[in-house]
Amino acid sequence: MNIFRLAGDVSHLVAIIILLLKIWRSKSCAGISGKSQVLFALVFTTRYLDLFTVYISSYNTVMKVVFLALSYATVYLIYMRFRNTYDSENDTFRVEFLLVPVIGLSFLENYSFTPVEILWTFSIFLEAVAIMPQLFMITKTGEAESITTHYLFFLGLYRALYIGNWVWRYHTEGFLDQIAVVSGVVQTIFYCDFFYLYFTKVLRGRGKMTLPMPV
Fold first, then answer.
1. Which of 64, 133, 143, 188 qualifies as a cystine partner to 35, CB 3.0-4.6 A?
2. Where are the transmembrane segments (predicted)?
């Protein structure tokens, strides 16, 4: 394992913990897209079907369990524990516009036409776009709390660090996973505009990140 992979995993874990703590401490999931969280739970579920059949390392197994548990805990808090605070009126992104093309691509572009491999490919493609309902929600409301933007920052940082991981592995091992790389780059691009707003507004001490209104 290289430093980029480790730092990426830590950033991913920090992002999810930030979100969970935000919801638990405030007893509110206002500003959080439940649809994005369901998509992320679906990502982990379809990716880690080999949890009990393939052993890679203790680290790998523990991280799989942690990400699965935390993703479903987040969904539970949003749709069950604090459902009265869920902003369904603004969480209106049509997820079928993501799922249909992702399912189609998973059948067309994969390394082996088997159920597990197709579902793994599905998880890679879906992760690239799963954040879109959250970004759409922020665009629709025009602002986001600073804690929510911190969550998005670490989530985007995780993807950016994984690009470093792929570059490192290609140069040191000659390994290149084209499906994961292309999907990861696409996902990182989605965060670029957010990164700019994060550094120029949130880190300057503003309580919320307010999007510029169109003229």
1. 133
2. 62-80, 118-138, 150-168, 180-199
